[in-house]
Amino acid sequence: MSLRYLAGRVAGMAGTLLGVAVVVFVVLRALPGDTITAKLGTQAATLTAEQRAALRHFYGLDASPVTQFFRWFGGLLRGDLGVSIDTGVPVTHLIGDALPVTVELAVLAMVIAVPIGVLFGMLAASRPGGARDFSVQGVGLLGLALPEFVVATVTVAWLASAFAYSPSAGTYVSLGDSFSGNLRQMLYPALVLAVGLAATVMRTTRSAYLEAAGSDFVRTARGKGLTEARVRFRHILHNAGIPIVTMVGIQFGYLLGGTLIVEQVFALPGLGRLLLDGILHQDYAIVQGVTLLVAAAFVVVNFAVDLVYRLLDPRTRSEGRRA
């Protein structure tokens, strides 16, 4: 991997994050109302012009949008994401508390969904057009069609009626405090997330597997007398790995920023709920910090996927050297 290639990727990542920062900043300021109205609610109508001006000055809202952006961006370069106007807590502390919850939830969902998706994708592709293929694809289509909030709500309702299960925001148990208690809280939302993820991985695996299975090297491998299991896993699945890795990487990046509904239903204090609270209270610092973190996660995941490409396919390494 050449230094020129790495420099280009790092520059592209930095440009992407800068673009995200600018867009989020502009969109937040374009929303009706402001932080003061969101914080005080109906009481904001009782403020005098002097009181409102004093509050805007206190929160730094009286400066021009350009000045506000460069103040925030300067703090970002120093590792300071600002302070939550709603709670008065530094945003880095809030994100530090919420990030492990979301990462654990995303990893657990991936651990459940990826093996299931790959296995059923291979089963469907082993007999294309057969009853097993249609059955697996039908289940996968159902998994893709069901919205997360429906699956989450039905799951909580069933757990409540069968086991008197009731999510509570004040009873979260971290992994360090109790492994079993944490697993009981995280398993059900991870299973909800795994439904759609497994279906996506299954469909990608099926398509990539069928494409690789029709290649000449597969017929050569079978002609050499290799066992069917070795042909399927060592030759077909290995060469079908790039599309699967791409989809898994994209879905993992999505999970880091797309667990809002599941975290809200199961009362998990993750990034999704933190972002939702920031939006509801128009807490600019929280929304900007969480959004930028999610964007950075996508960028890093894409870069990691690119590195895995180079391990799976030597042709990409030669292309990188020529570039």
Describe this structure in words.
- The chain crosses the membrane at residues 12-31, 105-126, 138-165, 185-202, 240-266, 286-312.
- Its main location: membrane.
- Keywords: Cell membrane, Membrane, Transmembrane, Transmembrane helix, Transport.
- Belongs to the binding-protein-dependent transport system permease family.
- Residues 99-309 form the ABC transmembrane type-1 domain.
- The longest helix is centred in the middle third of the chain and has 36 residues, at 91-126.
- The protein is globular and about 85 Å long.
- The termini are close together.
- It has 15 helices and no strands.
- The chain is an all-alpha fold and 323 residues long.
- It has a domain at 98-316: MetI-like fold (Orthogonal Bundle).
Total E-strand runs? 0
Helix content: over 70%
| Secondary structural class | mainly alpha
CATH architecture of the domain at 98-316: Orthogonal Bundle
Order of helices and strands: HHHHHHHHHHHHHHH
CATH topology of the domain at 98-316: MetI-like fold
- Let me know the CATH homologous superfamily of the domain at 98-316: MetI-like
The radius of gyration is 24 Å
Map the helices and strands:
Blueprint: H1 3-30, H2 35-40, H3 49-58, H4 65-77, H5 91-126, H6 131-145, H7 148-163, H8 179-213, H9 216-223, H10 228-239, H11 241-257, H12 260-265, H13 271-280, H14 284-312, H15 314-322
Helix pairs in contact: 1-14, 5-6, 5-8, 5-11, 5-14, 6-8, 7-8, 8-10, 8-11, 9-10, 11-14, 13-14, 14-15
